[in-house]
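Posting this for the archive.
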Amino acid sequence: MIGLAFAVAAVAGGCGSPRRGEQRAAESVVQGSPEPAPPFSFTTFDGQRISLDQLKGRPVVLNFWSTTCPHCADLMPRLEQVYERHRAQGLEVLGIATPDSLEAAKKKSESLGVTYPSGMDAAAVQAYGIRAVPATFFISKEGNLISARLGAMSVDELEEYVQKIL
């Protein structure tokens, strides 16, 4: 793995935004030279099976979140905005809830107006070394991990990252 666990471990301890130095460390681990994103597959809340392999040729924003994280709840509608804005360009936004109650996660996603595919998968959480949320990964059309961001973001910040993968 590309040092991803190290980057995410920098903010171990749960929901929250990393300190400035931790965020820079996380981004620098990923931005050196692109490497393949760890493979994952998960089942969405509506029963659809999605894998990274089937999304080759499309840019992907992968967001890990939790029902108990206020920063996640702030970020998800912003992700929805970016998804709606760039969907026609092939952008995929995916949400994976960290281990939680399936019903609570589904309810939270619906209450926030999320229409992008979301679900739960412990194997994906483990593959990406998630120890704190929100954690967002930006994957190129070729399946390479381009950037990672820990913590909440504004729509403008999301747009900056998305432009790197479109």
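The chain has one domain: 4-165. The CA atoms of residues 29 and 79 lie 23 Å apart.
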